[in-house]
Amino acid sequence: MPVAPAAAALALLIAVVTQTVPAQRLLSPHVTPLTPANARRPAEVSVSINPTNPEHVIAVMLQAGAPGEPRVSSHSYTSQDGGMTWKHVRAHNNGRVQGDDGVVFGRDGTAYHSYIAFDGIRVDRPERAFSGIFVRSSRDGLTWNDPVAVVDHINTAIPFEDKPWIGVDRGGSSAHRGNVYVAWTRFDVYGSDSPAHRSHVMFSRSRDGARTFSAPLEISDDTGDALDSDGTVEGAVPVAGPKGDVYVAWAGPKGLVFDRSGDGGWTFGTDVVIAPMPGGWDLPVPGLERHNGMPVTAVDLSDGPHKGTIYVNWIDERNGDPDVFVASSKDGGRSWTAPVRVNDDAKGAAQLFTWLAVDPLDGSLNLIFHDRRGLSGTMTGVTLARSVDGGKSFVNYPLRVPPFDCCAASTFFGDYNGIDAYGGRVVAAFPVLSAPPGNQQSVQAAIARFRPGTQELR
Ligand SMILES: [Ca+2]
Ligand SMILES: [Ca+2]
Ligand SMILES: [Ca+2]
Ligand SMILES: [Ca+2]
Questions:
Q1: Are residues 118 and 125 in contact, defined by beta-carbon separation less than 8 angstroms?
Q2: Where are the alpha helices (DSSP H) in 204-304?
Q3: Tens of pLDDT, residues 47-89
Q4: Among 310, 289, 313, which Cα is nearest to 301's?
Q5: Which pLDDT does position 9 carry in this prediction?
Q6: How remote is the CA of residue 70 from the centroid of ligand 1, in Å?
Q7: Predicted pLDDT at 419
Q8: How many percent of the chain have pLDDT more than 90?
Q9: CA of 274 to the centre of ligand 2 (A)
Q10: 3-state secondary structure 26-84
């Protein structure tokens, strides 16, 4: 059939519109599966974007083991297209329980993956017992070098080394550039209610690209209990500022506590209290085996107006229910702003499992958390939040994730979500459940492209 002039114009318009669709597709954060359908209860995911090639993204997480495998182990996924598609690699495991996975890229494009590997806790006389923290590295996320022990105990889980996080000095003018840092909680005896058994925040550094690590240093001035709850010191995330100062905050009986090193992680100072933490960091919510509000520490490495600002992000119940907060310091952690509430809903709903990434190019703050706002009971969604004014105000972006019951079918959702940002790109990762009767637990990725320094999605 011949095409009439008006129809030809319309066809041309359709062709033009069609051509612009790929650019428009990301106008709200795009959500795509990170794990395939056969992943076994994936959770506790960490994400990092390669600063030498932002299309290259690595995610690490725990997954339940198949019969004959360790109960829980580590897995990594690599994307070469900015997080749209992912390739799976099972992580090294020599027969232990693994988890608490964290990943961070160094400035040179080397990725570092930290995790715990243990057995024999909560048992009087275990048949097998280990407690170690390991780091391995990779250039591509597909092949990894052999893991290196930051600390390891063979045939005992006393003390128990737990909840590590890894940081790399990416500062442009740092004398310690390339240093790799690991901070974690040491339990004298995990789960013990004896007043003699304490928790301590420990720290180790590598100056040779995670080939060797220094003997652990205790940096917490005050110990906590060993119960793995509000009275325990936990949640240490080490980061390095533009000039190489090392910052780390944690939660414990005194609330949110901060410490810093001015010599590349060799010595630390006197702890500073950032803020009280009403309700503590152990924040049980209906439907989940456990939920915490432990802090995430981040620093602005950009050349923007907030360069060098330190941010701490956490969840507490000061307003009567779990809310997400950020406090900041412009003087190296000596003084802190009042906490700013990140979630912008009315009182009453729980926000869960926050994580924060500060974009090293535009200085924006980008957060991911599960969110029960506007939903009934244990129904749960996911929210991305972003600040482009140094953490003074936040825009909330509800993600297009079908709300799910969290979590009648799987009460273990790990301890955190993952997010990273680079040049306006944001990649977040979080577990969800599919609708009943499937109730399949998967990790999803949310991908957003902002015009750098703005809230404009593109
Ligand atoms: Ca964990
Ligand atoms: Ca200290
Ligand atoms: Ca509590
Ligand atoms: Ca809330």
A1: no
A2: none
A3: 999 999 999 999 999 999 999 999 999 999 999 999 999 999 9
A4: 310
A5: 43
A6: 16
A7: 99
A8: 89
A9: 13
A10: CCCCEEEECCCCCCCCCEEEEEEECCCCCCCEEEEEEEECCCCCCCEEEEEEEECCCCC
Q: What is Dmax (Cα atoms) for the chain?
A: 89
For 199-210, letters b (16+ CB in 10 Å) and e give bbbbbbbbbebb
Task: Kindly tell me the burial class for residue 114, based on how many C-beta atoms sit within 10 Å of its own C-beta (0-12, 13-18, 19 or more).
Answer: buried
Band of residue 27 on the pLDDT scale cut at 50, 70, 90: low
User: Which residues have C-beta within 8 Å of that of residue 303, sequence separation ≥ 6?
Assistant: none
> What DSSP line would sit under 394-427, residue for residue?
-EEEE-S---EESSTT-----S--EEEEETTEEE
Strands, sheet with 310-316, edge to edge from the N-terminal-most edge strand: 296-299, 310-316, 323-329, 340-341
CA dist 380 and 357 (Å) reads 22
Residue 244 host element (H or E): none
- In tens, the pLDDT along 409-446 reads 777 899 999 999 999 999 999 999 999 998 999 999 99
Domains delineated in the chain: 32-449 (2.120.10.10)
User: Cα separations (Å) of 208 from 58, 356, 390?
Assistant: 22, 27, 33
Which ligand is the nearest neighbour of the Cα of 292?
Answer: 3
CB 457 within 8 A of CB 29: yes
| List of residues 6+ apart from 436 with CB closer than 8 A | 405, 409
Both tokens of 441, joined, read 């637990």
Alpha-carbon distances of 195 from 14, 202, 303, 372, rounded to whole Å: 72, 20, 47, 37
- Centre of ligand 2 from the C-alpha of residue 275, in Å: 16
pTM over 0.90: yes
Q: Residue 141 pairs with which residues in a beta bridge?
A: none
- The residue-averaged pLDDT of 333-361 equals 98
Distance 349 CA to ligand 4 centre (A): 4
* DSSP label of 320: S
Single out the residue of 428, 432, 426 nearest to residue 445, CA to CA. 428
pLDDT tens track for 270-306 = 999 999 999 999 999 999 999 999 999 999 999 999 9
Q: What pLDDT, on the 0 to 100 scale, is given for residue 124?
A: 87
413 CA to centre of ligand 3 in angstroms: 18
Ligand 4 centroid vs 227 CA: distance in angstroms? 26
The enclosing H or E element of 24 equals helix 5-24
Residue 195: strand, helix, or coil:
coil
